[in-house]
Amino acid sequence: TAAGALIGADGHYANINLMERGFASYVFIGYAIHAHNSKTKYFPYLHNLYHLSLSGFYLSVGVGYLQHQIFIDTKNQNVPQLDEEYKKGYDRLTSGFSTKWEASYKYYSPNGKFQMYAGMDMTLAYTKNRRLYLFDQMEFSPTEMSWDKLLGVNIGIIIPIHRRNEEKFHYY
Fold first, then answer.
1. Which helix (H) or strand (E) holds 124?
2. Cα diameter, the chain
3. Could you give the count of Cα atoms lying within 13 Å of 132 in the half-sphere of its Cβ?
4. pTM of the entire structure?
């Protein structure tokens, strides 16, 4: 319609959801800056035994591949202008080479009961639109590559579940 709404085959307005969908795959290399126990300051030879805390800053960088597109969900409605083939003209499928930088702080409790982390990551990808024609623009896709930039924040807590190994055997 003139207002931008879609009308389904039944003559009613169609309820459409637009979502981002994609995947990324990376190979990482990193460095950990651990907080040391105070005893290792005076007895450096104990450093590698049991006084090293795993808590600290973790920095990593990765290279890989990024692909993303607009997912058009018609919720099983009959919308002829958005059948599976026509969706490809609107989905902006984009992919290419990518790099990712991550910096986070991880805290490991001394008794092993829980772990917490918080950090940021930055993704920079050199991508290209993979569709030949853009229906909404009524033109062929641009052939030049573009830079996609993503910034993320992550925070979490991990509570391990420990099971006992009772070493019981039952023979029949």
1. strand 115-129
2. 80
3. 2
4. 0.73
Q: Residue 76 and residue 133: Cα distance in Å, rounded? A: 25
pLDDT in tens, 86-143: 888 889 999 999 999 999 999 988 887 889 999 999 999 999 999 888 887 888 988 8
The single-letter code of the amino acid at 7 is I
CA 82 to CA 12: how far, in whole Å? Answer: 15
The burial of 1, by beta-carbon neighbours within 10 Å (0-12 exposed, 13-18 middle, 19 or more buried), is given as exposed
Q: Around Cβ 73, how many Cβ atoms within 10 Å?
A: 14
pLDDT band of residue 40 (cuts 50, 70, 90) is very low
Residue 111: what are its φ and ψ, rounded to 5°? -90, 0
